[in-house]
């Protein structure tokens, strides 16, 4: 009887290998040859799932963005709007080794997306969704009957995104997590600022 292959699982495994290689050696380390060798597949088998490096890169990018969204949705969202906002902000900051590694992958993929319009469009859409979700959380947390598109709210949402992206980049220089207390202190300051 032929072996039943879970093709979706194979794709996830290949993406995990690409991510691991990017974490270890940057974007250049994730060649088709190195992915095949690390995954233990024949080159032809890899091409069945991903016809090119760009297709693996796109899937890896989508995987990292999906993981960020899953972290936000992973726990039950707190009922208190301020705690819900805190939860969402903390989910996007590099507050553990796993998220610092994810930041390394994102940085490599951001650079690659500058020359790949499909990836750039994917990330722009992610940023728009992220900004909208944050603006809704901020408006609710402020409790001032402001809409999510009020200038003060959108300004704070942009600030959080800029800090999260900057923290992700900076964390790569401190992969031991030395900056985690600073990022947590930022969240505390942000929550104070929301009520001012």
What's the helix and strand layout?
Layout: H1 7-25, H2 32-39, H3 43-49, H4 53-74, H5 81-92, H6 97-113, H7 117-142, H8 151-171, H9 180-195
Organism: Streptomyces chumphonensis
Keywords: DNA-binding, Repressor, Transcription, Transcription regulation
GO molecular function: DNA-binding transcription factor activity; transcription cis-regulatory region binding
Give a structural overview.
GO terms for molecular function: DNA-binding transcription factor activity; transcription cis-regulatory region binding. This is TetR/AcrR family transcriptional regulator. Residues 8-68 form the HTH tetR-type domain. The chain is mostly helical. The chain has a domain at 61-195: Tetracycline Repressor, domain 2 (Orthogonal Bundle). The chain contains nine helices and no strands. The protein has helices at residues 7-25, 32-39, 43-49, 53-74, 81-92, 97-113, 117-142, 151-171, 180-195. The protein is elongated, with a radius of gyration of 19 Å. The model has no long low-confidence stretch (mean pLDDT 86).
Key traits:
196 residues; transcription; transcription regulation; Tetracycline Repressor, domain 2; mainly alpha; Homeodomain-like_sf; repressor
Q: State the distance separating the first and last CA atoms.
A: 68 Å
Determine Rg (CA atoms, Å). Answer: 19 Å
Corresponding CATH superfamily of the domain at 61-195: Tetracycline Repressor, domain 2
So what's the CATH class of the domain at 61-195?
Mainly Alpha
Indicate the mean pLDDT.
86
Low-confidence stretches: none
Helix proportion of residues, in percent? Answer: over 70%
What would you say the CATH architecture of the domain at 61-195 is? Orthogonal Bundle
| Tally of DSSP helical segments | 9
DNA-binding region: 31-50
Domain HTH tetR-type: 8-68
Keywords: DNA-binding, Repressor, Transcription, Transcription regulation
GO molecular function: DNA-binding transcription factor activity; transcription cis-regulatory region binding
